[in-house]
Amino acid sequence: MLKYQQIASEIELYIEKHQMQQGEKLPVLETLIKEFNTSKSTIIKALDLLEKKGLIFQVRGSGIFVRRKKRKNYINLLSNQGFQKDLEKFHLSSEVLELEIRKPTEAVAQNLHIDMDQDVYYVKRVRYIEEETLCLEESYYNKAVVPYLNKEIVTDSIFKYIEDGLGLKVGFSDMYMQIGKLTDQEASYLKLKNGEPKLTMESIFYLTNGTAFDYSKLTYNYNQSQFYILGTGI
Amino acid sequence: MLKYQQIASEIELYIEKHQMQQGEKLPVLETLIKEFNTSKSTIIKALDLLEKKGLIFQVRGSGIFVRRKKRKNYINLLSNQGFQKDLEKFHLSSEVLELEIRKPTEAVAQNLHIDMDQDVYYVKRVRYIEEETLCLEESYYNKAVVPYLNKEIVTDSIFKYIEDGLGLKVGFSDMYMQIGKLTDQEASYLKLKNGEPKLTMESIFYLTNGTAFDYSKLTYNYNQSQFYILGTGI
Question: DSSP letters along A114-159, please?
Answer without folding.
Answer: --TTS-EEEEEEEEEETTEEEEEEEEEEETTTS----HHHHHS-HH
